[in-house]
């Protein structure tokens, strides 16, 4: 895996069936640009039949099937090297002929391409011009990129595949540095089952040094086949933001500054509990990092942390860091090459909520340091299960204040013993802090503001009270998830422009499904059902402006004020109405439909045990 993935272009005179690029290659003429798909292509007509980026983006788990992967891998592994003398199209036919689905064929191509020993391939005489081996040789000579060859192969079997250009945080990347030309790379997005997925065959191809430094073995990395876009964005930043395949794209500034999370982080099922930056600063010498772990796997995982000074002239002794657990020994047998001592991390299990990985480091001197966290599964017994990077951080320790704090604490302890007026680190102090944090979480939940809730949860975890406040943290996280869902539903209506809403109002005789959606919406917003039975009355309500406009009423809507009988009546009005039908009739009504059904679902969850009224009140 690395970042020396050149931006060379494909020769124009090759009979490629279907090509797509997010950039315009310098040596391929006649490409047309699709604004909807944000790509240059040699066959614009085919793009009309497929979704654009952002419409259907998928995770690996959505479409992958183990039995299909096994079959595709078996086919790719069994390919005889003599077949490389065949023309590329005939070779591809031999590779995929017994595979039925696009997923299986794409998987076979990925597996075959990433296990090729390309550095052993030599130019040979062949009766076939531009045979398969010739294309592999171009990879070695940097006349073709892995992404381009993968795209060519997919295009030959009519699987939509885009070559994406951008920046990557590969082997040449140093945490926090500015991204430059040396970090440029290419990768792919491939359409499987109408879902756009991300692939990086260059990072998926592995070279492993054998017993001697000149002996190379070839393997592959499955992680970079259909990688989750939310994980991929930590290492790959496309020039065209749509091809991030995220619900909400991030900026280059955020990509450069966000935590440097590695592949092993996601393989272990870890998650970031806050928007941690890759470069940290501390004004008192203390650094605290907290990550979430998979509660079903955490007991079988082990972690270590290495800290070292970035400046080579600094020397430190083993007292420079404060260990975070009672065991000062290390699993590393030889630390002579590590200029800074190994720091064991503390894994704290909160059985009521979730597991957290807590790392606390106290520096003795100001300066710049690197923190490297590694981890692995305990029980997995194979060559790949060695400690590998989880995350890397740079820390700038501006000054040290903890000696001063220690003196102050000692003074307070003496005062407490002599006058019984002050106390420090007592049980009462801990209870006071927990109660204060509990009240902070409660106030944040009352405010219904996501940023306040997230800050309250971070404070509770950072202060090492995740176990004591497990129930409160769990409720707060549920509230955060709920508020984010409501915010997303509300945003769909708020993004409707006035012209779209005016189109709904302009109907003289509205389609039945549109009428139902608007009636159900007005009912949730507090209008009497009798007001909504006549379309002219409904038109008047749609036409109101200011605080009485439908968009403003949706914005100010309080889900907690919605009674279950009103929600269930709205559900009855919508009975039999399908989103596809509404969407095909009116984009504006579709926005209101999503909001209404979302509010009804929230109300049903809240009043799960309540049944609708059967008599008039």
Automatic annotation (TrEMBL):
Disordered, as annotated region: 316-335
Boundaries of every KY-like immunoglobulin-like domain copy: 253-401
Keywords: Coiled coil
Keyword field contains Coiled coil: yes
Bias-annotated ranges (Basic and acidic residues): 316-326
Gene3D superfamilies, alphabetized: 1.20.920.20
UniProt-listed InterPro entries: Ig-like_KY, Papain-like_cys_pep_sf, Transglut-like_Superfamily_Mod
Keyword DNA repair: no
Domain of life: Eukaryota
A matching Pfam family: Ig-like_KY
Coiled coil: 443-486
Name of this protein: KY-like immunoglobulin-like domain-containing protein
Organism lineage: Eukaryota, Metazoa, Spiralia, Lophotrochozoa, Mollusca
């Amino acid at each position: 895996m690395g970042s020396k993935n050149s931006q060379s272009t494909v020769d124009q005179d090759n009979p490629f069936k279907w090509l797509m690029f997010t950039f315009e290659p310098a040596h391929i003429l006649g490409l047309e640009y699709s604004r909807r798909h944000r790509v240059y292509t040699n066959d614009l007509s085919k793009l009309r039949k497929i979704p654009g980026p952002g419409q259907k983006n998928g995770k690996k788990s959505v479409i992958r099937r183990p039995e299909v992967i096994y079959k595709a891998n078996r086919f790719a592994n069994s390919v005889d090297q003599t077949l490389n003398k065949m023309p590329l199209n005939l070779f591809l036919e031999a590779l995929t002929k017994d595979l039925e689905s696009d997923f299986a064929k794409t998987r076979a191509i990925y597996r075959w391409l990433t296990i090729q020993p390309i550095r052993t391939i030599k130019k040979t005489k062949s009766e076939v011009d531009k045979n398969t081996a010739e294309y592999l040789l171009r990879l070695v000579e940097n006349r073709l990129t892995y992404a381009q060859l993968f795209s060519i192969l997919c295009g030959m079997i009519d699987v939509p595949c885009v070559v994406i250009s951008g920046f990557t945080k590969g082997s040449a990347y140093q945490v926090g540095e500015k991204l430059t030309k040396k970090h440029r790379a290419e990768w792919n997005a491939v359409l499987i089952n109408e879902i756009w997925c991300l692939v990086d065959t260059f990072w998926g191809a592995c070279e492993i040094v054998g017993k001697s430094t000149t002996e190379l073995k070839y393997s592959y990395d499955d992680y970079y086949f259909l990688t989750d876009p939310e994980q991929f964005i930590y290492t790959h930043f496309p020039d065209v933001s749509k091809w991030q395949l995220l619900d909400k794209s991030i900026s280059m500034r955020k990509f450069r500054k966000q935590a440097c999370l590695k592949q092993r982080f996601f393989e272990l099922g870890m998650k970031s509990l806050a928007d941690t930056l890759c470069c940290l600063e501390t004004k008192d010498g203390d650094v605290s990092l907290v990550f979430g772990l998979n509660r079903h796997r955490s007991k079988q995982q082990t972690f270590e942390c290495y800290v070292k000074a970035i400046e080579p002239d600094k020397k430190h002794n083993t007292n420079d860091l404060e260990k975070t657990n009672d065991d000062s020994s290390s699993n590393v047998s030889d630390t002579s090459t590590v200029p800074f001592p190994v720091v064991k991390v503390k894994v704290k299990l909160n059985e009521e909520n979730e597991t957290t990985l807590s790392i606390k480091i106290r520096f003795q001197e100001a300066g710049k340091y690197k923190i490297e966290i590694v981890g692995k599964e305990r029980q997995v017994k194979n060559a790949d299960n060695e400690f590998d990077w989880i995350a890397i951080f740079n820390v700038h320790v501006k000054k040290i204040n903890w000696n001063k704090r220690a003196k102050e604490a000692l003074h307070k302890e003496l005062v407490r013993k002599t006058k019984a007026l002050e106390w420090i680190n007592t049980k009462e102090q801990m209870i006071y802090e927990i109660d204060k944090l509990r009240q902070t979480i409660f106030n944040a939940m009352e405010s219904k503001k996501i940023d306040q809730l997230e800050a309250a949860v971070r404070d509770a975890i950072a202060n090492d009270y995740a176990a004591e406040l497990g129930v409160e943290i769990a409720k707060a996280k549920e509230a955060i998830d709920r508020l984010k869902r409501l915010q997303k539903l509300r945003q769909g209506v708020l993004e409707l422009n006035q012209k779209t809403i005016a189109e709904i109002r302009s109907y003289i005789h509205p389609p039945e499904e549109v009428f139902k959606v608007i009636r159900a919406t007005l009912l949730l917003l507090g209008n009497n059902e009798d007001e909504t039975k006549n379309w002219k009355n409904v038109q008047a309500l749609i036409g109101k402006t200011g605080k009485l406009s439908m968009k403003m009423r949706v914005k100010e809507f309080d889900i907690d004020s919605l009674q279950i009988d009103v929600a269930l009546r709205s559900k009855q009005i919508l009975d039999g109405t399908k989103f596809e039908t509404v969407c095909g009739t009116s984009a504006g009504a579709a926005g209101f439909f999503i909001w209404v059904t979302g509010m009804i679902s929230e109300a049903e969850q809240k009043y799960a045990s309540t049944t609708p009224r059967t008599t008039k009140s």
